[in-house]
Amino acid sequence: MIKVKQLQKKTKKTSAIAHYKDLSIQFSLDGFSFCISNSENKAPLLFTKYAFPASITSPELLLEEIIRIFNTDKDLQQDFSSVFAIHQNNLATLVPNKLFDRNNLAPYLKYTVKTLKTDFITYDLHNIIAANTVYIPYVNINNYLFQNFGEFEYKHHSTVLIDKLLSYSQENSEQQFFVHVSPNDIDVVVCKEGKLIFYNSFSYSSKEDFIYYILFTAEQLQMDPNNFQLTFIGDIEKESELYIITYTYVRNIHFMNPIDNFFADSDDFSNHSNFILIA
């Protein structure tokens, strides 16, 4: 069981005050983040990230950790106008509308995810593309959030990521190659002028795994590593071994420059680090 004192907590906040606040939270087996924003103008007021010292091994233990955080973090112990939860896991797949049957979701996951008959499977409708994310949410955490806040909205992290990136890149005529980095997984999104060319997620345990999946994707899409531009988002910095090995093979790399510069003056967070919750 993880002790609270072992958690690494980082916070960024403004001095702005809002009478009505929205709460957005994102959780995975690697950590827990939340953003409190102004309900009226959607400006972020506070962002906090808890990084677990090691990946949690089950949704049950993850719920224990989240309960502990909610019981000790006073910023979470207030009333909110709305609550939005983001489930980050690799228990998902993307299904085009033409092949989608909302009454028969299990077959979409059976080739990529080990499922049980008792698993609750749901889906998100994408805002920009004609597709749906089919996934298994952390039901126990949803139940806990409902007990605390009542009705709330939730989505899979890939739904939010894809829709944000498509919106972000819709005016760009060049093919965009995005890599969203988490401690043990990456999401690769390739798009052009607001249209999705490719999406997949990969688990990695070494820098060699990491670069393999990037180069494999580029090869499948016939994109020359010497020419295309790769944009990093998430938990990666220029000094990291992941960046260094990528730059060995991909010549044009830069970091996401989000519209919202909430982290511009932060010592703890890079501007590209939390695109899913703040952009």
Question: What labels describe this entry?
Answer:
279 residues; alpha/beta; Nucleotidyltransferase, domain 5; 6 helices; disordered N terminus; DUF3822
CATH architecture of the largest domain: 2-Layer Sandwich
**Biggest pleated-sheet summary:** 6 strands, mixed
Mean pLDDT: 92
Counting DSSP H or I runs of 4 or more residues, the number of helices is 6
> Can you list the strand order of the major beta sheet?
1-4-3-2-5-9
Number of domains: 3
Structural class label:
alpha/beta
CATH T-level topology of the largest domain: Nucleotidyltransferase, domain 5
Give the topology string: H per helix, E per strand: EEEEHEEHEEHEHEEEHEHE
CATH class identity of the largest domain: Alpha Beta
Compact description:
Helix content is 23%, strand content 31%. It has helices spanning 59-72, 106-109, 139-149, 157-169, 207-220, 241-249; strands spanning 8-13, 21-27, 31-38, 44-51, 82-87, 92-96, 122-125, 131-135, 153-156, 176-181, 185-192, 195-203, 229-234, 252-255.
